[in-house]
Amino acid sequence: MEKIGILVISYGSRDTAIIDALSRSIEYDTEFYIVDKQRNPFNLRMAERRGEHRIIPDLSVDEICNFAERYKDEIDFGIVGSEIPIIQGIRDLLEEKTGIPIVCPTRKCAIEGSKVSQRILLQKCWPKANPMFKIFDPKEMGDRSKTEFKGWLSELGGPEKVVIKPDRPGFGKGVGVGGEHFKTIEEAYTHFNSLYGAGGSEKVIIEQKIDGEESSFQAFCDGKHLAVLPETRDYKRAFDGDKGPNTGGMGSYKGERELLPFMQLSDRKEEINIVEEVFRELAGNGSNPNLRGVPFYVAFMHSAEGPKILEINSRPGDPEIQNILPLVDQDFVEVCLNMIDGSLHSVRVKPLSSVVIYKVPPSYGGYSKQFPDRVSTHEIDSPIDLDVALKLVEKNPENLRLYPGSMEIRSDGRPYSLSSRTISSVGMAARMEEARELSLETIGKVLGGSLWHRSDIASSDHVGKSIEHMKQLRAK
Questions:
Q1: So what's the pLDDT on residue 81?
Q2: How many other CB atoms sit within 10 Å of the CB of residue 26?
Q3: 220-247: string of b/e by CB count within 10 Å (b at 16+)?
C-alpha cells in the first residue's frame, strides 16, 4: 500500500469521524498529522500509531501553519472540518506557506462568515428561497433603527413571527426566535439592541419566521462539480420534544434512501437546483477551486411555499456529516484526492439509515439548571468509562461508530468530558428504528461524568409528527 500523510485540523466529533473515514482506506497506508484542541483519545491513538499529534487549544492559524511547515515533506494533503479556521483563512495560509493542498474552501468562499452576504447572494440567485428579510446597518440607518424596527415587525406580523440574527457567525448564539426568546415588541427590541451596532458596526438581519420541517443538505465539491450527499435531519434543541435552547446539535438522522421521510422527490430536486444555481454564481466560468471541500452545508426549511434557506455554511455539518461518512461506499482518501485534482463527480453512499446521538455534560444546554434532580453530582468531572461501549463497536464494526469530541486524556491516563458535546454514537441499519436502537444502546454504555443525551432522536413519534406537519402545510 502507498503511504500517504494527512493533516487534519480537529475541533470535535465531526473531525474524529473524518479521521475514522480516512483511516479505513484500503488503497493507502494513512499517516495522520493531527492538530487538536485537546488530547482527544481517538485522535491521539490514530496519530501515535503513525504521525504526530499537536495540541493548539485556540486552533491559531499561525500555529497550525508552523506545525504543518515542520512536517510538510511527510504531508500529502490536509482537511479542515471546523468553521473557525476556515473563516480565518487557514487554507489560504497553509497553501501559500507550505504548498500542501487543503480540502476546505478558501476564506473568500467561506460564505458563512456573513449572514447578510448570504441573503444578498440568494436574492440574486434564487429569491424564492429567501424568507422576507430586512438588513439593519448602523452605518446607514443611524437614529432611524427603532422606528424601522417596529415598522418591520408590524409588517411581518408581530414579534412572534420573526427571527433576529447577527451578521457575524455566532454558531447559533445570538439568534433570537420569536415566541421562544421573546414575545413582545419590547423584549424583541432588547434582543435586537444587544446585537445591533456591537463594536460600532454590527449589522443585524430581521427575517420572517418560517413554519415547516428542517433538512440538512450537504455536498462535496472539487471546484467543478457538486457531489450531492443524502439528506439528514438535525436536532438543534437541547431537550426531548424540541424544548430548551438551541445547541450545536444533539443528534441527527439519515433515512433509508436519499430523502427524509417527510420529504417528496420534488423537494429534493428543488434543493439541488437552488444550490447548483448558487454554485454557478460563485464558480463564475464554471470552475472555482476555491470552493473545494464542503462549501454548501445548507439548512433548508420545507414550508407551504416550498424550500426556504435558513443559512448556508462552508463546511461539513456537525453532527450531520457523521451520518454520512461511515456509509461512504468508496475509499475516502481517494474522494479527497479527487476533490483536489478536480475529478470528483459523485460519491457512493450505502442505502442505509443512520442515527447519531450526542452525550453531553450536565452544564450543556442548561440541563443541570432545568433538571437538577437528574444530575448525579458525585459523577460530575469523574472519568468517562468507554470500555463497554467500545466493545460493542468492536463486535459490530459494520453498524456502529463511537466518536469522542469534547473529551481529553488527562495526566492519570483516563478520558474526561470538557464543556461541550462529549461523544457521539452512530448506529447504521436497513431500517431507521434499528439504527436508532443501536445508537441508543451504544451511547447508553458510555458511563461517568454525569453525561446525558436526548432520548427522542429519530423516534417514530418525532418522525411521524414531521410527516403529519408537512401534510398539513402542503394541504394549504
A1: 95
A2: 9
A3: bbbbbbbbbbbbbbbbbbbbbeeebbbb
Length of the chain: 476
Positive or negative, the CA dihedral 408, 409, 410, 415 is positive
User: Does residue 232 sit in helix, strand or coil?
Assistant: strand
- Output the nine-digit C-alpha cell for 368: 443541570
- Whole-number Å distance between alpha carbons of 165 and 172: 9
What does DSSP say about strands 133-136 and 204-208: parallel, antiparallel, or unpaired?
Answer: antiparallel
CA angle 455, 461, 466 (to 5 degrees): 110
Using DSSP's 3-state secondary structure scheme, residue 313 falls into strand
Q: For domain 354-463, say whether CATH 3.30.300.30 is its number.
A: no
H/E segment holding residue 2: strand 2-10
Fold category of 212-341 in CATH: D-amino Acid Aminotransferase; Chain A, domain 1 (3.30.470)
Q: Do residues 214 and 234 lie in contact, with contact meaning Cβ atoms separated by under 8 Å?
A: yes
CATH 3.40.50.2020 fits 2-104, yes or no: no
**Residues 293 and 220 sit within 8 Å (Cβ to Cβ):** yes
Q: Which helix (H) or strand (E) is 308 found in, with range? A: strand 306-313
State pTM to two decimals.
0.95
Domain with CATH 3.90.600.10 in the chain: 354-463
* CATH 3.40.50.20 domain locations along the chain: 2-104
Euclidean distance between CA atoms 452 and 211, whole angstroms: 29
User: What digits encode the pLDDT tens for the residues 415-433?
Assistant: 999 999 999 999 999 999 9
Fold topology of 132-208: Dna Ligase; domain 1 (3.30.1490)
In sequence order, what are the residues at sequence separation of 6 or more whose Cβ sits closer than 8 angstroms to the Cβ of residue 180?
A: none
Q: How many CB atoms lie within 10 A of CB 96?
A: 10
Candidate from 51-55, 110-114, 299-303 with smallest mean pLDDT: 110-114
Of 404, 364, 115, nearest to 247 by C-alpha is 364
Tell me the sheet residues that pair with 292: none
What residue type is assigned to position 463 of the chain? V
Q: What is the pLDDT of residues 123-145, one digit of tens each?
A: 999 999 999 999 999 988 888 99
pLDDT class for 66, splitting at 50, 70, 90? Answer: very high
- Residue 337 in contact with residue 282, Cβ under 8 Å? no
Q: Determine the pLDDT at residue 173.
A: 62
Instruction: Summarize pLDDT for 1-51 with one digit per residue, the tens.
Output: 899 999 999 999 999 999 999 999 999 999 999 999 999 999 999 999 889
- In angstroms, what CA-CA distances link 343 with 225, 296, 315, 336, 339? 8, 18, 20, 10, 6
Alpha helices (H) in 109-184, listed in sequence order: 115-125, 138-141, 145-156
d(CA 451, CA 242): 19
CATH 3.30.1490.20 domain locations along the chain: 132-208
